[in-house]
Amino acid sequence: MKVTDSDSVAIRFVIERQLAAFQKDDAQGAFAFASPGIQKQFLTAEKFMQMVRISYPAVYRPRSIFFEKITTIQGNITQSVLLLSPHGVPLRALYLMEKQPDDTWKINGCFLVSVEAEII
């Protein structure tokens, strides 16, 4: 799938809005940017928020955010974002994005890797 400039803008917007929702502890707002599959997996916004808070502190409360280029990893449109964790550890968040039938984008997963990790 080819990612257009408008897709790139929309993808960044979705991630920025979800990160902003995490900052405000807005579970419903953050959950709204998750794909239907992720929503089905967690069932409630509160369970989703608890998982992010515990397992993804760099996503939940990043000190800084820097968007890198969009790439495709194993067939998934992936937005790479450099994050600085609350403890000052740099990490790369790989956001797997999913285009919805209405042409909007949702987050279909996020993986944290060390900054030194090579993205193929």
TrEMBL record:
Protein name (Swiss-Prot/TrEMBL): DUF4864 domain-containing protein
Organism for this UniProt entry: Halotia branconii CENA392
